[in-house]
Amino acid sequence: MNKFSISIAVFCAGILSGCVSVNEKEVLPETPVQLHPNAAKLNGSLSVALYIPAEHTVADIPLRSRTIQQVAATVDSAVVSIYVKTATPVKVRLIPFNLKFTGIPASLPGVGLGSGFFIHPGGYLLTNEHVVRNATDIRVMTHNGTDYIAKIIALDPVYDLALLKVDSPNNLRFSFIPMGDSTQLRGGDLVIAVGNPLGFGHTVTSGIISHTGRSLFEEKDSEGRYVRYIQTDAAINPGSSGGPLISLTGAWVGLNTAQIANTQGIGFTVPSTQVQEFINNVLSGNGQQVQ
Questions:
Q1: Is 164 helix (H, G, I), strand (E, B) or coil?
Q2: How many angstroms separate the CA atoms of 271 and 180, rounded?
Q3: Has 76 been annotated as catalytic?
Q4: Which of 100, 142, 170, 208 lies at a 20 to 30 A Cα distance from 231?
Q5: What is the mean pLDDT of residues 15-36?
Q6: Using CA atoms, how far apart are residues 289 and 40, in angstroms rounded to an integer?
Q7: What is the mean pLDDT of residues 33-52?
Q8: 202-225 burial, b if ≥16 CB within 10 A, otherwise e?
Q9: Catalytic residue, candidates 130, 182, 189, 206
Q10: Is 247 tagged catalytic?
């Protein structure tokens, strides 16, 4: 048994005994965007420095036997698999009671995976915040198997968004997906989702928009920020989190977040309008500076 397996076993035993607890901060609706040091380079930049808008979000496109395949082919090279090493903060106690101000701070090594997609040829890409939470190392693998190190530019814990940056050693321009306007979507519009479910690699699923503006939480704070999710029946399986939701014009209209456990056809996507709000906060330097 290797050291990682032993760490997991000890952690699980500690959790069951009550002697170990995860030391995570609660995400409140007023939690600001987290701006990492590299975000300062973007302060004051125009939006074209981070994303390219699509000419059309929706259109009355004839649905033929290979329409979905053709749309998927246009975006496939911009979708990536993300592999993460993490160090989750925990507190270790000598007694099985989770009392405030007790416990020894420690960290537990772990691994995770998810999906992402390039939104700009300069190497900027999006994924979910929960995919890279507590990350110590982030690797991005493109559709052709090329592996890159990614750095965090900014995080939005409320909207569950993360902006990453990949640098190409040869100043290579990356394939990207243009951003559509999610306010143009209506129930019944056809969409596809692309991701890395369970680490299998690029996978395409399709479905329709089931609902827009879906709120999943009680909105107690009138000044708080809440996600107005796009609901879709396109499958969003574990590992597909962070991948794009694509309209038939080839525009991304949202960032896939989760599917309700023990259900079929109930998945949720952060709409592009709220992703744009996150990006605008990064460009204007509106957030909390973190190291």
A1: strand
A2: 10
A3: no
A4: 142
A5: 72
A6: 9
A7: 95
A8: bbbbbbebbebeeeeeeeeeeeeb
A9: 130
A10: no
